[in-house]
Amino acid sequence: MEMLERKGGTAKDPHGTMISAKEFTSQLERLNKEMKKFWERDDKVACIRIAIQCAKLLNDVATPLFYPQKFILLTDILDQFGDLVNSRMKKLTKEYSNGQLIITAENEDSVDFTQIPEKVQETCRNWFLKCACIREVLPRIYLELALVSSHKYMQMRVQQSDLVRLSKMCRGIAEPLCAAYTASYLARVGYGISPNQKDYLLILVEFMSKLYSTIVEKGHSSLEQATY
Fold first, then answer.
1. Residue 18: pLDDT band by 50, 70, 90 thresholds?
2. Range of the domain at 106
């Protein structure tokens, strides 16, 4: 991970940027495999560290032309992390209910989550508490969104207020490109939770309008303004 943070060409050297992009992609593929191996070894601390570091890498906009690809690669890892946690919650639910409550993709929408065993709720709550302890705004938003599918195991559904809170947190991201992609990730996850909720989207639209004004005014040091 440290190697990933140090790597990278510059926008002024397209050939170097292309090579570093290939290396970066290869490193992330290996990192994703490592996370799965750590998970199988029951090393959950190592897994959440990888997820946090992946989110932190999205702070780096030194090569803006590569940022869209980097965003997809890194959010794929974060989504994978969220899926691992969700699968773990399903497994624990079956275990602590003595096989009486089995959650599958087919019946998940009809399950009565008020019946989730207390031990499972506690385990799920610990994951979200770990997210709450992250000091930096960006990784905290990404990690919480990655885990959003497990929210129901605390006998709680993701509410409009949760999405509004996260959309307001996006205002704390100073770099326009980074903030714009974070907002897009929030919008994607939010749509998957509840397509009809709009209040948080209105906040994001207003925020994006202000970001555009910032981009027009300041631009990016590595790109011509029209390209940025």
1. very low
2. 2-162
